[in-house]
Write a structure and sequence with these properties.
Largest sheet: 7 strands, mixed
Helix content: 40-55%
Bound molecules: pyridoxal-5'-phosphate
Order of helices and strands: EHHEHEHEHEHEEEHHEEHEHHEHH
Strand content: 5-15%
Length: 389
């Protein structure tokens, strides 16, 4: 990508921070040992892994032995759900989740429902927030897991995780949260928030792709999905991705040294662009809660405009954004998140997600402001209703 190109899709993935890449490089070449090997090369790699584990545990207020390295967010979500169901294979049980989860959670829960587990999928309000009371009411005697995401990847809404965790704890039900969009962006304290299991992924916080964490609180019932060499205390076999772990730990360290200041800078740029969109273009609606949302997230529906056409036009201007979850793009279905918020198919199809990040500049925002109104007018002119908008 040339310097002219503007990346505004940080919720899909982030570039590896050059400082992270630098720290990782040596673990691909000189310090390439297998941490399970007892010799010097192995021990050197093991030291880096354990340092990473300790660092990451400290940012979650967890114990190092509660951190299991995985291949990313989807794997960690699967481990939480299938690993819990596996402990009750013969007896069955009831799962509670929400309608706006990432497919890594939703499809996994639906898969388990096909295997005989009962599933409650809770609705959300039109602002995209889950009501903790609904969670409480959904609990049954045979509920074995509650899984609610920390913040949504499409509309950025932040859920009342602490309250939901408290409800789960009172009922002695394991609570899992998908923190893929929040770790490194919002403070997380697994003890204070009553979290038993948590998924996170390095590529959303300027770390490499294909590495993540499954946090599991000591004593939480769980059966591993991947058997083999019994790495990670038997919880996830496979040779450890040492450069990935080192990269994730460094990415987390960098994120936590500037968590608040970065949050402020990004929110300021986000608010500027959001206010522009809402005031300078007619018939634009914000999706998701106005304030209880990730600092970098804008999700709007623009009447009489197809999101896909809008994205293509922005792309021609060198601006990369999204009209929903990158993971489900290519499908014709409107976003399950936006429909859960009560949007019509048309409104959902007219959605635009702009997600800012560490390397977004004011000039980037100025450029979007300078091209977007014209693109919207041109696209609206193609439709009879749009022309009169
Ligand atoms: C909320 C959420 N959960 C899970 C995932 C999947 O993570 P990964 O790409 O590391 O498998 C994503 C990625 O888009 C996400 O946004």
């Amino acid at each position: 990508m040339s310097a002219m190109n503007i990346y505004l899709d940080y919720a899909a993935t982030t570039p590896v921070d050059p400082r992270v890449a630098e720290v990782m490089a040596v673990y691909n070449t000189d310090k390439f040992g297998n941490p399970s090997s007892p010799h010097g090369f192995g021990q050197e790699a093991l030291e880096a892994v354990e340092y990473g584990r300790k660092t990451l545990a400290s940012f979650l207020n967890a114990k190092p032995n509660e951190i299991v390295f995985t291949g990313g967010g989807s794997e960690s979500d699967n481990m939480a759900i299938k690993g819990t169901c596996e402990t009750r294979w013969d007896k069955g049980g009831h799962l509670i989740t929400t309608a706006i989860e990432h497919h890594a959670v939703l499809h996994t829960c639906e898969f388990m429902a096909k295997r005989g587990f009962d599933l409650t999928v809770l609705p959300v309000g039109s602002d995209g927030i889950v009501d903790p009371d609904d969670v409480k009411k959904a609990i049954r005697r045979d509920t074995i897991l509650i899984t609610v995401m920390h913040a949504n990847n499409e509309v950025g809404t932040i859920q009342p995780i602490k309250e939901i965790g408290h409800i789960a704890q009172e009922a002695s039900i394991p609570f899992h949260t998908d923190s893929v969009q929040t770790f490194g962006h919002l403070p997380i304290d697994v003890q204070e928030m009553n979290i038993d299991m948590l998924a996170l992924s390095a590529h959303k916080l300027y770390g490499p792709k294909g590495i993540g964490i499954f946090f599991i609180k000591e004593g939480t019932p769980f059966i591993p999905l991947i058997h083999g060499g019994a790495q990670e205390a038997g919880r996830r076999s496979s040779t450890l991705n040492v450069p990935g772990i080192v990269g994730l730990a460094e990415a987390a360290r960098l994120a936590h040294t500037s968590l608040e200041s970065e949050h402020k800078t990004i929110a300021k740029l986000r608010d500027r662009l959001l206010n522009f969109l809402l005031s300078e273009i007619k018939q634009v609606h914000l999706n998701g809660h106005r304030t209880r949302r990730l600092a970098n997230n804008i999700n709007v529906s623009i009447d009489y405009v197809e999101g896909e056409s809008l994205l293509a036009s922005l792309d021609m201007e060198g601006i990369s954004a999204s009209s929903g979850s990158a993971c489900s793009s290519g499908s014709d279905e409107p976003s399950h998140v936006l429909t859960a918020l009560g949007l019509t198919t048309e409104e959902a199809r007219g959605s635009l997600r702009i997600s800012l990040g560490r390397f977004t500049t004011e000039q980037d925002i100025v450029r979007v402001e300078s091209v977007l109104p014209e693109i919207v007018t041109r696209l609206r002119d193609l439709t009879p209703f749009g022309r009169n908008a």
